[in-house]
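Lecture 7 notes: from sequence to structure.

We start with a single chain of 150 residues. Read the sequence below before looking at the structure.
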Amino acid sequence: MGIEGAVVDGVTARAQLGLLRTRITHYPGSGLKGNNLLSAPDVTAGGSVEWRRGDLTALGALTYTGAHFTDVNNRPRGRTDDLIIADIQASYDLGRFRLFGSLKNLFDSRAAIARYPGVVPAGGSGSEPDYDSSVLVQPRTFMAGVKVTF
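Now the structure, written as tokens:
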């Protein structure tokens, strides 16, 4: 669900909230009954504020993703942490041309968005966590460009 409204002239605020509860209820012989579905956080939320003045637009946004399992077996090492990402962007319209820029992951979070518990291979050494892998949030990224309308 979401809400959007004008705060003052030229400023719009938006907020969204997603609530989800997932459980595997029937999968005979799998040992997975009662587990959470993978990659399904219980809570997601977001908010943004957009400012417009003439041809100039600026926007700041926050996105929250609750901790969740990215491993169908719901092993603790397959659970991500809560995550908040901040982004900003701005644009300026010049008729047929639009200049724009954005900064994604403003605070350069290095959090894992997916975690995959590893297993020591036959003949391998070390412990299972030595073989874990993760997918990390895209690092801070700056983009700029020009849009031309024909």
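The CA atoms of residues 33 and 47 lie 35 Å apart. Keep this in mind for problem set 3.
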